[in-house]
Structure formats: structure tokens, C-alpha cells
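So, can you check this record?

>
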Amino acid sequence: MKIFSGSSNRALAEEIASYLKIDLGKCVLDRFSDGEIHFYIDENVRGEDVFVIQSGSYETNFHLMELFLMIDAFKRASAGRITAVIPYYCYARQDWKDRPRVPISARLVADLLESAGTDRVLTMDLHSPQIQGFFSIPVDNLMAAPVLAHYIQSLNLEDLVIVSPDAGGVGRARLFSKRMEATLAIIDKRRPAPSVAKVLHVIGDVKNRDVVILDDMVDTGGTLVKSVEALKKKGAKRIFAACSHPVLSGSALERIENSDLEKLIVTNTIPSKGEMESFKKIVVLSVAALFGEAIRRISKGQSVSSLFV
């Protein structure tokens, strides 16, 4: 087994390698003067079980291209098996034709990964579970739920309610509420335009109760802040939020900081922005051990799903 890292989330890759008690593989990632990616592997990988760690990030297009080139290099170097470890699977939000004349970008990325030479994909909390069906190769979709739940339990919240911010996330929220032995509420939301959310009403009882809004990602923070406002109007006592992927683009950090949200609990599938350290409401948890254990089990041919039983 050999692990290599792209440039998108080197810190997470180093944590994973540390968990597995191995060194990251030797490779060189650089750019030509015109901006094109220059990559080569600096050690023998013939017949090896290779894991390439590369997450979606703030330079999504660049990092995707970097991943494709890395996988192609390992294929041409006769690696035995190539697993793309993608903690945050980007371009996942367009996973069906919600209107005429739009792409299905999640499927396109799946096709490109397979064309590049990927034998297996390891990711976390896909935007929609059915994206696994876009691949004709094995896909392991890890869940950040154990890591998030452990932290939330330490907060000793009372009469806990898990809130899904939209109808699409009900399945995820239901499983999490069962794990937390909490009740479930749903926010009825509409999107009149991309990245614009309109909260209509809250379905469920949240009055005088502590709530945790659970989502797979937070991007601009607009949905989250509007959800917090709606829950406050319904009498919620303390309001927290948890998500796997902290995209936090634009003025998301400022929106969250100025809202009634107590804490936003996220993982390190996406590297933290430098300015996040000055925002006290953001709590970052590591999923390195979860990925490390999944990689170890995949390499040894053991069950990955048993991690979540």
C-alpha cells in the first residue's frame, strides 16, 4: 500500500499517513510557466496498491485536473490498483436534470475519473447517495456522523432535535437523529435561484429545545442563516449546526458570525481557510482516522461498512 497526496489538502493526507504509520509517497507536483500542471512519481509503484488523496477545494477545477493527471501517471507506471480518495466530491450538486439544458456534472466527474484509470473511489458524505450509481467501479461513501456525533454528545444538549435544512437531507438527518436518540424536524425550503434559499416554515416541534441543523455542506451560509432565523421564531433554545464539508465561500463566515448560531461544527475534508481561526463559532474536527481505517480495510480486503454499525 502506498499513499500519495495532491495539493488540495496536504494536511489531511499527512494525518491519514500518520494514522497508518507510513510515509507519504514521493512525487513532484509543479507548474509549467504557463500554469499547466507538471507531475511525476519519484518512486517505483509497479504492482502496488496506490491511494491518491485529493479533495475538492477552493481551486476546484485545478485540483480535479491535478487528480486526473496523477491517476493517469500511476496507470502508466503499472500500479496494481488505483483508489481515488476524494474527501469532498466536488461538482456533486448537479446530480440530475432539474430543468432543461443543464449538465449532470456529478456524472461527468465520475466518467472522467474512470477514463483516467481509477479502479476504486473512497469519498465522504456524497451530496446524494445515488451518485454512487454513476460509477461502474466500486465506491465507498464514508459518513462523518460518528465524528460529529461524538462532539455533539460532549455538549450535553437537552431535548435534542436534529433538523434537516431541506427535504433532500431528511434521510441523512433521520439516521443521525436515530444515532443521537433525538427527534427530527424539517425545514421547508425553496430555491428561486442558485445559492438563494427561501425558508417557508418549520415542520416539527422545536420550542424550548436545543437543535442541531445537519447538512452535508455549507457554502454561502445563506440557507443556514435563514434556517437559524426560522428556528428562533419557532422558539428554539440553543441552535447548533453540523456539516461534513465547510465550503464557506464568499461572505459565509461573516454571515455565520453575525447570526444566532452558537457553533458550526465541520470536518477537515476541505482545508480550513486562514481567516477561519479568528471566527470562534467554527469548530473543525478531523476525519483522518476514519479515512485511515477505511484505507487500511480496503487494502486488506476487509469490510468498510462495519465502521458505521
Remarks:
- Residues 60-76 form the longest helix (17 residues).
